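#onboarding

Welcome to the new folks! Below is a worked example of what a typical request in this channel looks like: someone posts a single protein sequence, and someone else replies with the predicted structure as tokens. Don't worry about understanding the tokens yet, we'll cover that in week two.

Example request:
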Amino acid sequence: MTSIAKPPIRHPGLKTNSLGLTPRDYEGVMSTLCAGCGHDSVTAALVQSMWELAIPPHRAAKMSGIGCSSKTTAYFMKQSHGFNSVHGRMPSVASGANAANRALTYIGVSGDGDSLSIGLGQLCHAIRRNVRMLYVIENNGVYGLTKGQFSASADIGSTSKKGDANVQPPIDPVLLALTLGATFVARGFSGDKAQLIPILKAGLSHNGLALVDVISPCVTFNDHEGSTKSYAFTREHEVEIAAADFVPLRREITIPASDTTVQVVQMHDGSTVRFRRLEDGYDPTNRDLAYAHVRACQARGEMATGLLFIDENGADMHAVAKTVDTPLAELPFETLCPGQTALQALMEKYR
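Example response:
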């Protein structure tokens, strides 16, 4: 699908950050996602986060794989570097780019299908290496680009657009990250930008891999049998001019400001999700406590949100590999390739 450039109109009253840039300078092309898609709310939160942190757009690199979520990188910071990899391979491409140029800010945007199915091994090793990057998973439980099959994060009992129920247990990216030793683990909701923006800002500032699982409703495949806006009903009650799917126009789901610990959110298909914020006194530096909290929420049918765990003393990939401070991309050829004599001396250490 062709990208559509946004009109270059700027309101004279827009605020600027320390770089003299407005939030509009952190936007990308027009979104081609379905109206009301939660992913667009994530994009807005990313734009606001990077504007507030005054990250120079030309010093950032956006990485993604394949899926509706992976289109997000086109919708913010159009002046940044970017790479759209093949399905599930974003973590290794981001690791390679980070190894070559540690001076850039890396933002990886993926989906539950891209990261928890075909890319699960890639995600695990990126966590294990503690690659310095913000890793956002836009999690909706389905494959949106291929007509709504269940992803690996789909809950037991959830139904597809045809009414089939999922019977396989889900992979929870938060529990996975905690188990693998991630140094920053958080979860948010696309409709709660008041909570999501601080989480994203913290992740962008973290020295290591910051995994942020964002529950992001899909407006197209959150339908159900019996709905007058379902695919089956539409096909049965229309005269088809051309082969096309019906995508109902929906409003994005947002959460009003509230001090309540648990918020109940109704999704587009009428189902509800219960989000639990962290309570006062919660210790995000205790990995065992974070794991137990997430499991306890699951047992109550709730979704734990907030900054669940952080280890500010963790060593990132460059510290572990003992690379030089100067980005490899900026080193001269003679330093990167010192010649046969230096290579022979290095090889002697392994004999």
